[in-house]
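Anyone else keep sequences and C-alpha cells together like this?

Example one:
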Amino acid sequence: MPKNPSIKSVLIIGSGPIIIGQACEFDYSGSQALRSLREDGIETVLINSNPATIMTDPTMADHVYLLPLTTKSIIKILEKHPEIDAVLPTMGGQTALNLCIEADEKGIWKDFKVKLIGVDIDAINITEDREQFRELMLKIGVPMAPQATATSYLKGKEIAQEFGFPLVIRASYTLGGAGASFVHSEDQFDTLLTRGLETSPIHEVMIDKALIGWKEYELELLRDKNDNVVIICTIENMDPMGIHTGDSITIAPAMTLSDTTFQKMRDMAIHMMRSIGDFAGGCNVQFAVSPDEEENIIAIEINPRVSRSSALASKATGYPIAKIAAKLAIGYTLDELQNQITKSTSALFEPTIDYVVVKIPRWNFDKFEGSDRTLGLQMKAVGEVMAIGRSFQEALHKATQSLEIKRNGLGADGKGYKNYDQIIDKLTHASWDRVFVIYDAIQMGIPLSRIYDITKIDMWFLKQYEELYQLEKEISKFDIDTIDRDLLLEAKQKGYGDRQLAHMLGCLESEVYNKRDELNIHRIYKLVDTCAAEFQAMTPYYYSTFENEIVEPNGKTYSANESVVSDRKKIVVLGSGPNRIGQGIEFDYCCVHGVLAASECDYETIMINCNPETVSTDFDIADKLYFEPVFWEHIYDIIRHEKPEGVIVQLGGQTALKLAEKLDRYGIKIMGTSFRSLDLAEDRGSFSTLLKDNGIPYPEFDTAETADEALAVADRLNFPILVRPSYVLGGQGMKIVINKKELEEHVVDLLRKIPNNKLLLDHYLDGAIEAEADAICDGEDVYIIGIMEHIEPCGIHSGDSNATLPPFNLGEFVMQQIKDHTVKIAKALNTVGLINIQFAIKDDMVYIIEANPRASRTVPFIAKAYGEPYVNYATKIMLGEKKLKDFNFNPRLDGYAIKQPVFSFNKFPNVNKQLGPEMKSTGESILFIDSLKDDEFYELYARRKMYLSK
C-alpha cells in the first residue's frame, strides 16, 4: 500500500490537445503516472480532452473523463467522485498547472477537501511569477541575468532604456516560449513588448539582458518527502542560448562541461529545488554557462513538474521519471522504490550512461505558408527524434536518419547546400536545417573559427563534424572493391548509413550491405541499463552499434551482442517516427494497442521506433524495444536478427506504410493487407481504375506526371481542379486550383519537391458535403466501426474538419450508399485489418475521394466515442488469429461525439491561416453533446461556410 494511507483516490489532469510546445511527452508521463498509481491500488480519475492518446484509453484509469479542461469540468467530476482525496497536476504540462492554479484561486480544492500532491501552489507561483522567482534566487545566492518585470508598456520602455539592447522578453504563465522574443534594436521593441504583454494571461513580461552565445544546460531532478534528491540526467544544448530548448539539438550526457562546473551546477539545482517549496516530485532546471574559461553559471528557470525533457531523459537513461515521481507524490521515498531496469537496486541512484543520446527536433514549416523559419525563443517544432549511439557522431547520424526528411544522414547524399552566401545566411539566422548546414560549411572549406564566431556552437561539436567530413574525404578515394574492412567499420561506427557509403563509393546501397556481410561487419545490440553495466539489467531495451571483434586466447572471435533471440514466435510493429502534422499521437495509440493485442495472441512483441515522446517507446510496453530509426537499413538488420513471423505496417501511419514495398521485395511477410493492396490504394491512378471497374462513382479525374500532361488534363476537366500527389500523408501538397496559371505553378512546384510522383487531378465538387468511414475487414466480412460527417464543406482536409459521429445530416439513401461503397472497396482491395474511406456527397450522390487501407487518424476517436477496442480487434484479424464473427460488437454512445481540430497558428503570427486540402492542425479534442440543439454545435455549424482557400 502507499506510504500515505490517507490517499485512496487521485485526480490526474491531462494536457489536452497536442499543440506546438506541449505534445505527446505529457501523454507519456500521464500514462506512466496512471499505471504507477494503479499498481498501488489507488483509484485513478483522469480528465483530458484529447481522444487520440493512449492516456485517455478506458484501460488506463478507473474513470476517464473526456471533458474540456475547465474548472467547470473539474467541479462536475469532484461532485460525481466525492471520494477523490488528492490532485496530481504535474503530469499535464503547463495546461494542467494553469488549471490547477485557477481551481485553487476559486477555492475548488478547498471546497471539496482535495489536497495537491507532487508540487505545491507556492512552488508553482514562485516559478511562474518571474519577479518572485528572481527575488528568491538572489536571496539564496543563485546568479541570474539582469532582469526586471513589466506589467505595462511604459514600464517596459523604462527597463529597455536602463539595460540597453540586446534584450529578451518572456511572457509569464505561458508554455513553449509563447510570447518570448529577442530584441536586437529599438525599432522591434514596441511590437515585441506588446505581443509579450498580450500573450501572458496576467499581462506580465520579464525583460532580461540577453546572454547571446552562452551555453545552455538542463537538469532533471527528483525529490522525495525525506528531502533525498537525485539528478537523473544532464542535457546539453548544442545550440547556444537564444534558441528554445524544444527547438535545440540536445545531447545527454553533457559533453563540454568541466567536472568542477558540473558539480557547482548540481549543487545549485538541488538548492533551487529545495528553496521553491516543500514537495515530493519531479523538477526541471535550466542554466546558462559562459563560453569562456570562467564558466560562470546563471539560472534561467525551474519547472516544478515533469517537462518535455523529462520524457527524453527517461528514454535516454532508462529511468522512468514520471512513474517514480507519481510514487513520490503519494508518499514513497526513493530508497523504498525499485530501479525499474535492474530490478535489484533502488531508485535512490543517479543513472550512469555509457553511450550518447542525441535529440533533434522535427519541424513542419511547409504547413505554415509565409512563416518565419528562423529559430528563436518561441518553440516551433512539432515533434522530435532521439538516437542512441556509442559516440556523439554515431548518435548524430542516427538521429538525422530518423527525421524522415529525405536525408540519409549528415552529408554524403548530394543534397547539401553549395552556395556560400546561402550557407552563411543559414548559419547566421539559425535555421531548422542548421544541423546539416554545418557539415556543408565545413565541406565548402569555411574555417571552424568562422563557423564558431557565427553560431557560438562549442568548438568540440564542430570538431566532431570536421572529423566526419575528413572520413568522408578518405572513403571517397576508394570504390566498393578496394575499400578495406577497417575503414568501412570506422564509417559504420561513426553512424554513416549504407546509402551514404554507396554515394561516396559510387555504387548501390545493396552492394555496400553485401560487402559488409562479406567482411562480417554486423550491427550488434546493446542494452540500455541505467548503470553502465555495473548491475545486470532485466529490461529488453536496445540500441544498435558496431564493435571491433574481441579475440579470445583460443583465437575465437566474437562481438558482444546483448540482444538474445528467443525461440518464441515474434511480431514486429513498426512505429510512426517523429510527430508531424498529419501523423501524430493517434498512430502511437494504434501501435501500443497493436503490441498489446499481439501479446494477447501469445506472440513475442518487438517495437521499433525513434520518438522519445511516446508511450510506444516505453520500455515495458513491448517484450522488446529497439530504439532505432524507422529507416530501412536499421529495420532490415533487426528483422534478420530476430526472424519474426511478420511485420505490422498498418498501425504506424505513412512512415511504416512506405517501408512495405521494401519488406515485400525482401520476402518479409506483411501481416494483414498485402503490399499489392496497400500500393493500389496509394497510387491515385490505379485506385480510380479499381473504382471504375466496381461501378463506384468518383469525381472525374486523370493523372499527370509533368506540367504539360496536367495542362492537357485541365482541358478535359472543368475547373476548379483538386491536385493530389500519391504516397503522401496529411494532404501534403494538395491544392485546389482555379485556372491554368495556378495549375502549372503548383504542378511544377510539386514535382520539384516530390520528383517522379504520379499526380491525380480531379474535378473538385464545389459545395459538396464530406464524410468518412472507418471499417475492419477480415478478407470476407466487413464491419463499419464508424461513419462521420464533416461540418466543414468538402475541400478542407479531414484532419482540419470538425467531424460528428454519427452523421447529423445524411439521409438513409446516402448512408446506404456509404455503407455499400465501404464494403465493396474493402473487399476489392482484399483488406485484412483497418481501412478508412473518404466521401464527397453532392445531390444525394456519394463519390469516393480516397481510401487508406491502414489505421487512420480517426480510429482512436471512434474507439473512445463508442467505448470499443477496435485496434485490438483489427490486430487479431491481421494476425489471422480471429475473424469478425468472433467479436461481439457493442458500441455505446448517447447523442453525438464531435472531433474538433486544434491549431498552433499563434506560433506563427504572420502565417496564412486559411484552411484547404492540406492539413494544418496539430491536435484534436473531443466534445460530447446530447443533441444538435446544443449551443456549441450550433456555433460550429454557423462557421462552416468560412472561406475555403483555393
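And example two:
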Amino acid sequence: MIRRKWLPIATCAYMGAYMSMPFSITFEAIAGALPDKNLWGKPSCDVNQAEILRKHELRKLALVKETTDNAKIKAQADYAAILQKHKADLQSCRDRQPIQTQATWLRLYANDAKAGVLEDVFDRIVNRGYNQVFIEVFYDGRVLLPVSDNPTPWRSVMAEAVKEGSVSADYDLWQKAVKLGKERGIKVYGWAFTMNFGYGYSEVRGKASALALNGKGENSIANTNFNRQQVANGRAFYEDAYEVDHLFIDPYSPIARNDLISAVKALMQRNPDGMVFDYVRYPTNATGALIDDVKQLWIYGQSSRSTLLNSIGDRHVRALMELYLANGAVTGSDVIATEQKLADAMRVKPNPIPNPSQVAITTNNFLWNMATNHAYQGVLNFVSAVTTPLQQNNIPIGTVFFPQGNDRQGNKVAPKMQPWERFPSFMERHPMTYALCADGKCVAEQVAEVLQQSAPNTLVCPVLAGTWGQSFDGHPSYEIQTQAIKARSPQINCISHFVYSWMEPDSDRLRKAGTATGLESPTLPN
C-alpha cells in the first residue's frame, strides 16, 4: 500500500502503519494524523447500541474487573454466548449483502497482551460489521513472533516489552489474534512486507549481498533521513519511515528468499486464514516519475546482475549488456569494439557493421527491454517463491499493490516495477485504490481498471482509504466510495478499509501509548 506510516506515533502503515498512525497516501504506508471525530457512519451488518453495551459490560466482568469467582464464571459464560450470537448474526447478514467480505487493516501493540484489550479491539471490529482483518505480521524490520520462538533474522515486535518484563518471552500475540478472530467469525489474514525488509535488516551480519542495488552501487537506504546512530540496534522500528528509509532486497538473492520463507513458515504455523503480501515491488523515486535509465533499475545486486548476464547465451549480447549496465548506454564505437574483440578471441575476421550508430540505437532498445523484463521477472519469481509454503498448505494468498505500479509509456516504466497484472490468477488482488475525488468515481475507475486486467476467477478486493460518515485526508467517506464502486463494477463483493486506527482513533492512541485497559467506553452508533 502506499506505505502508510504510523508514527510513534507512527511506523509504517498501510501504509507503513502501526506503532504509528496513518499518513497521507503517497508513499507506502505512512499514516499520520487521526480523524478529529469518531463517527459511526452507515456500515452494513453493524451491531445495535444495546447489544454493544451489553457485550462491553460482560467483557469487563469476564476479563478485566475484579469480582467474585461465581460472578466471573457467569460473566465469562454470558460473554461467550453473546460472542457466538454476534458471530452467527454477522455471518448471516454478510451472506445477504452485496459486499459479502468487509475487511479492515490492523496493527497490534504490546499493550494488546493485557487481558481484555485485544478482545475489545476485535469486538469493535465486529460491531461495525467486519468479517475479516489484515494484521501486520512482518513490517518495518520486525516480525510478530514470540521472542523465544523466532527463527528469523528480524527482531520480534515484542522484544522491548519482553525486556521490560511486561510480557514473557514466549508470549504469542499473533496466535492470540488468530484465536480471537475465529471465535468471532472474523477471518484473520497476516499482512507482510515482501521486498522491503526494513531498515533493521541492514544491521544483520552477512546480508549485504542480499540487498538491491542501483547503477550507482547504492542500496535503497543510501539517502536515508534517519540519524544512523540514533536508530541503531532496532530503534528504527519506532521512527517515521519514508521511502528512503525502507531497505529493499535483491529478489534474485537466495539469502533474501530463504530469510522471508523462514518468516512465512513460522507465521503460518499459527493457522491464519490467509496471508497478503505488500511491497511486492522495487523502491520508487521522489516524484514517482517514469524512468528510462538502466542505472535507475535495482538490478545491480550481486545475484540479480549475475542472473541477468548468465541468462544471455549469445556472447555478443552478453558483452554489450555488460557495457550497457556499466555505462548506461552503448555507442556505435562500443558495437564495433565488441565485434572486434570477440572476433579476435575466436581468431576470425570481424563482421562489417555498415551503420554502427543505428545499430547502437537498436541495441540500446533491445538491452533496455531485456533489463526491464529481468527486473519484472525478479518480482514475480520472488513472490512465487516466498509464498510456496502457503501454496503447499492451501492457505489463501493475496498481493497488495498500487494500480499504477505497472505503468508503462513507450520505453518508460514506473519505478516500482510492480507487474501485478502478471501475478498468478489464484492470488487475491488487493489494489490500493486511493485516488482523490469528492464523489468516489475516480476510485471506482481504478477498481474497474484492475478488474479489466484480472482473470474472471481472481478475487479483486479493493482497499479504500478513509473512514465512515465523513471525508478524511482528502478521501470521501467509505459509504460514498462503496456506492461509486458498486455502480461501476457490481460484481465486486469484497472491500477493505484502511485503516482501523482511522475508525477507532481513541483505541489506537491508547494502545499505542500502552495505557489501554479494556475498560474504555465502546464506540456507539451516532
